[in-house]
């Protein structure tokens, strides 16, 4: 097993991506600590993991609360003997599809403040423990908006670009201490909608303005990629698990492009 005797912390562990990654990590032997705001959703993921023979613990936690996140990381490290892998898969509902001239300052600032704050907080909490042991992997999530010119996605664009920049800088700060940092940039995942992803709420206004459904809008997005499809939840989860594994031990300070060719690096 790839992650036997390893400990993983997944913030946003009750969400579509966080839950999928947690199931894969646990299936490969990791003990997974799920953190998030909804106990019911966390318990649903933990129940799946335990039913498959894995280990999962849950904690209701606000990733914007630095003191609470620190306490949780300390408790995990004390209980499990350390932290090997950490993923921030926290999502925040925010405004998309509003043109710049109509966008309020508050709607622009919200995703930037939320995503940069929570990624800083969760990364710092686990990094303190990883540095002491001289090893660890921190994983973050962004979106193709980091590289797209718009229109109508300014808050998403800037927040995604900021998370990618934060990840690169952390890789530079922590690399000499044995900690890898990798950002993952998946395109929209249609099946995540059925798993309660916040993206339905995010995409709905833009779809409504275009006179279509979120599902139809995603079909159109697939047509704009080189592969003429969008990534599956399993592909994204297993790619993240690979990046957390020893097989990817030479990878740090980069963004893994899972956009199916919407963006070409």
Task: Record the SSE blueprint.
Elements: E1 7-11, H1 16-27, E2 31-36, H2 39-51, E3 55-60, H3 66-80, E4 85-88, H4 105-133, E5 136-141, H5 154-174, E6 179-186, H6 199-209, H7 214-223, H8 233-244, E7 254-258
Parallel strand pairs: 1-2, 1-4, 2-3, 4-5, 5-6, 6-7
Helix pairs in contact: 1-2, 1-8, 3-4, 4-5
Could you explain the architecture of this structure?
The protein has 265 residues and is α/β, with parallel strands linked by helices. It is 46% helix and 15% strand. The protein is built from eight helices and seven strands; from the N terminus they run βαβαβαβαβαβαααβ. The protein has helices at residues 16-27, 39-51, 66-80, 105-133, 154-174, 199-209, 214-223, 233-244, and strands spanning 7-11, 31-36, 55-60, 85-88, 136-141, 179-186, 254-258. A seven-stranded parallel beta sheet has the order 3-2-1-4-5-6-7, sandwiched between helices. Helix 2 links the parallel strand 2 (31-36) and strand 3 (55-60). Helix 1 packs parallel to helix 2 and helix 4 packs parallel to helix 5.
């Amino acid at each position: 097993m790839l992650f036997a005797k390893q400990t993983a912390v997944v913030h946003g562990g009750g969400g579509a991506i966080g839950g999928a990654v947690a199931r894969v990590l646990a299936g490969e032997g990791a003990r997974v600590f799920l953190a998030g705001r909804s106990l019911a959703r966390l318990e649903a993921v933990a129940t799946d993991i335990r039913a498959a023979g894995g280990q999962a613990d849950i904690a209701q936690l606000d990733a914007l609360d630095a003191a609470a996140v620190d306490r949780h990381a300390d408790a995990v490290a004390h209980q499990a003997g350390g932290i090997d892998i950490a993923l921030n898969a926290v999502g925040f509902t925010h405004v998309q599809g509003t043109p710049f001239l109509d966008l309020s300052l508050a709607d622009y600032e919200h995703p930037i403040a939320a995503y940069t704050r929570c990624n800083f907080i969760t990364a710092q909490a686990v990094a303190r423990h990883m540095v002491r042991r001289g090893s660890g992997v921190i994983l973050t999530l962004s979106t193709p908006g980091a590289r797209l010119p718009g229109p109508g996605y300014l808050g998403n664009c800037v927040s995604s670009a900021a998370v990618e920049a934060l990840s690169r800088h952390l890789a530079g700060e922590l690399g000499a201490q044995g900690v890898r940092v990798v950002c993952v940039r998946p395109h929209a995942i249609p099946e995540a909608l059925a798993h309660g992803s916040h993206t339905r709420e995010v995409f709905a206004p833009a779809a409504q303005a275009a006179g279509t459904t979120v599902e139809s809008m995603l079909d159109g997005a697939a047509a704009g990629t080189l592969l003429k499809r969008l990534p599956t939840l399993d592909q994204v989860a297993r790619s993240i698990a690979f990046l957390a594994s020893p097989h990817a031990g030479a990878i740090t300070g980069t963004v893994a492009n899972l956009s199916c060719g919407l963006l070409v690096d």
